[in-house]
Amino acid sequence: MDRTLNKHLLLLAILLTVTACAQSPEQRSPEELTPSDLSTGDLSSGDLSSDDLSSDELLSSNGEPSVDDIVIADDSAIDDADYDEDLAAVLEEVEQGEGGYGVPGVYDPFEGFNRAMWNLNYDYLDPYLARPVSLAYVDYTPSFMRTGIKNFLANLDEPASMVNSLLMLNGEEAVRHFNRFWINSTFGVFGLIDIASAADIRKPVDKQFGDTMGKYGVANGPYFMFPVYGPVTLREGAGDVVDGLYLPLSALNFWQSLGKWAFEGMEDRAALVKQEAILKDSPDAYIFTRDAYIQNKNFRATGGNVELLEQDDEAYLDDFMDEIDGE
Q1: Is 204 helix (H, G, I), strand (E, B) or coil?
Q2: How would residue 103 be classed by pLDDT, with cut points 50, 70 and 90?
Q3: What is the DSSP letter of 231?
Q4: 26 to each of 29, 111, 143, how far by Cα in Å?
Q5: 258 CB-side CA count, 13 A
Q6: What are 101's strand-pairing partners?
Q7: How many other CB atoms are there within 10 angstroms of residue 133's CB atom?
Q8: Helix/strand/coil percent split, the chain, to 5
Q9: What are the protein's UniProt keywords (predicted)?
């Protein structure tokens, strides 16, 4: 009897043990957990809880890269060599007037001589002669006298501008130049008073024979820099000679022509004072002045139509500027 009871009790204990093991979940290490276990909150692996997992392990368990797996780009590791080379190449093209960024029409075969004359003008003749004389003229000459002199000298150029406007097939401006000349020469006391502007006959931009030649495809020709006189191209020099053949300019003797040039030069030089900082800050003042002069002549020859970049050059320039903005 006792032996039979003991056997039943032992069998019952074994059954209870087996049942308990079947109902208890299998304990797993953190490495054995699957993402689904974590996403469903199934952390019933004995004493294992969410607190036992580090933030890196939790992030990795959710199927996302862990902190150790993320590679953070270091800005200091970016190689700027190619960018620097591209920038240097473009700046060299701009400075030398080459490539898609250069000024069209620049021909400077005498650059060595021209630079020497530029240095003479820029370092000596301008700061010690042209600039102080021009500023003294502007500062100490009564404004009504300066205005009268400017009007008188400008009136002398009207006939040449009229002829060149006709040659450039701009009849409207030719008529305006003609009307301004006869009105100011008579009612304006030989041009001293600008009666035409008061009558709403505004002065167009003067047209020179150099502009006319440029319109019909004549190149600028060699560029020259002369002491005191400044920059000029072969085309502009020849154009000035032709313009001087028209009355009343042809009636002026050498000294009168020199006086006209001197007074106009003083007004022009004084007007450039505000732009001196731009010239001073330019990487190459000679190139800056030369290209600005040629650009102005090209602009006048085309009647104000700016030559656009080719599409390929424009696209490349846009991309390059985007790179600069991104730095």
Answers
A1: coil
A2: confident
A3: E
A4: 10, 90, 104
A5: 4
A6: none
A7: 15
A8: 65, 5, 30
A9: Signal
One-letter amino acid at 119 equals N
Please give the Cα distance from 201 to 110 (Å, whole number).
Answer: 43
In this structure, are residues 74 and 264 in contact, taking their beta carbons and an 8 Å threshold? no
Distance CA 254, CA 258 (A): 6
pLDDT, one tens digit per residue, over 226-270 is: 999 999 999 999 999 999 999 999 999 999 999 999 999 999 999
Cis omega (within 30 of 0) for bond into 204: no
Q: Are strands 230-233 and 223-226 parallel, antiparallel or unpaired?
A: antiparallel
Q: Is the pLDDT of residue 120 over 90?
A: yes
pLDDT value at residue 303:
75
Helical (H) or strand (E) element with 301:
helix 285-301
Q: How far apart are alpha carbons 16 and 19 in whole angstroms? A: 5
DSSP for residue 9 = H
* Contact (CB, 8 A) for 195 and 188: yes
The model's pTM is 0.63
Nearest to 148 by CA among 193, 109, 207: 193
Cα–Cα dist 160/165, whole Å: 9
Q: How far apart are CA 65 and CA 56, in angstroms?
A: 9
pLDDT in tens, 147-193: 999 999 999 999 999 999 999 999 999 999 999 999 999 999 999 99
Amino acid letter for position 76: S
In the numeric block, which tokens belong to residue 171?
A: 């009849």
∠ at Cα 222 (169, 251), nearest 5°? 55
End-to-end CA distance of the chain: 96
